[in-house]
Amino acid sequence: MEKQLSMPHIAKSIAPVIKKSSNLTDLIPGTLRTHCVSVRLNNAELSKLNTLRGNYAKGEWLRMASLQKLPPIIPAINTEAWKAFSEISQKLNRIALHIDSKSKESQLTHTELFAVKRQLEELRCNLLRADFWSVPREGNAEDTQR
């Protein structure tokens, strides 16, 4: 006669299916969620929970929050920055196509070098600027600090 394992936290209908030689007998008691915790929220708290949880179920999000295992929040794409970088990229691609179409013997002109230098400086400036994400600005020729 086969001996039944005693598993107090597992429903009786599941216990007979698990055989003694199975590794599930070690895994289930440690990973199976058997405890239930309920919480009452007012309208403002429920609204905040719904905003914060995103696509997660309320209970799942509360569990992740209590265990400090929330997924990282990825900010939305800044469309203005995306447009600026795509314009610079297009200009650099046009310059690269022009340079590639030239014969190997011909050297770059000062105008071509200036165009490449200007686009690279604009790209570098936009990548390094901290205020790029708020207000786009063109460079001013005069000192505005006076």
Please indicate the percent range of residues in DSSP E strands (runs of 2 or more).
Answer: under 5%
User: Into which percent range does the helicity of residues fall?
Assistant: 40-55%
CA-CA gap between termini? 97 Å
Gross morphology is elongated
Estimate the mean pLDDT confidence.
Answer: 75
Rg for CA atoms: 31 Å
- Unreliable residue stretches: none
Number of helices: 5
- Give me the count of strands: 0
Would you tell me the structural class of the helices and strands? mainly alpha
Order of helices and strands: HHHHH
Oligomerization: single chain
Largest sheet: none
Short note summarizing the structure:
The protein is built from five helices and no strands.
Entry keywords:
mainly alpha; 146 residues
Explain what you see.
By secondary structure, this protein is mainly alpha-helical. The protein is about 50% helix and about 0% strand. About 0% of the residues are buried. The longest helix is centred in the middle third of the chain and has 23 residues, at about 80-100. It has helices at about 25-30, 45-55, 60-65, 80-100, 110-130.
